[in-house]
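Researcher: Please predict.
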Amino acid sequence: MQLRVFIEPQQGATYDDQLRLAQATEELGFDGFFRSDHYLSMSRPGPPGPTDAWVTLAGLARETSRIRLGTLVSPVTFRLPGPLAIQVAQVDAMSGGRVELGLGTGWFEREHAAYGIPFPERRFDLLAEQLEVVTGLWRTAPDETYSYAGDHYTLTDSPALPKPVQWAAVGGGAGVPVIVGGKGPRRTPALAARYAAEYNASFPTLDELPGLFAGVRGACERVGRDPGSIVLSAALVLAVGADEAELARRAAVIGRPADVLRAQGIAGTVPEVVDRLGAIAEAGATRVYLQTLDLSDLDHLDLVAREVVPRL
């Protein structure tokens, strides 16, 4: 199982905070470092304020050498699909081909109002069109142009450049892996089957996972895609302690009761967390995003790397 670190920097983190954690992620042997894409805190107003996801990832791309980097997820409301395809391809080049794009509808209306970003009602339609445009631009051969006419976006004779580094590495195709997530029973699995390299279940219960994954595999079969070709993953909050006292301390820092974390996340003592990850793997996941909420606690990740990973 691959383990990736996943952070929520809008809750209070500078670029330097994120750089420190990304470099620790790499040094400790985790597979990737992913961040949310938000412009407003949900619970902690005040400094330092937001950092832009793709500007941040560009910086991290030059300061790391191995880990995968990406968003979980970028809202379609924040960026037009043409410029987004350019941004992601450029960061992919800056990283040497280590970038992945998580794309979603966006949900936090207040952050849109705070920064003057439109927040339309029918955002799922925007997501479907953005997935078509972004992957279409990347798939277009270098000597061809790309045009698209949809209900929300129109592109005419785009040179469809630059190509992601990963485009050349795999001999064409979309290049940058796309992540689609959510719990919708019909449209989300269909989009994942058509466009995504990975389907991510965000904060599911253990009981939900088999059904969610089965829905995606079924959607793949309906479009003639090998269900084994899509990565199935889950994102869950992390809280691990070497003992009960350490677990309680970490739970208190992030403001959540330890019993709630145990029920809803990857939480508990080391043996409990090993069992939890094993159960998630049995449900079908081959990758887990560890939502790390206290960015100052590097010992937390060190504990997972030293004590949990070797037992998986």
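Model: The domain at 2-311 is CATH 3.20.20.30 (TIM Barrel).
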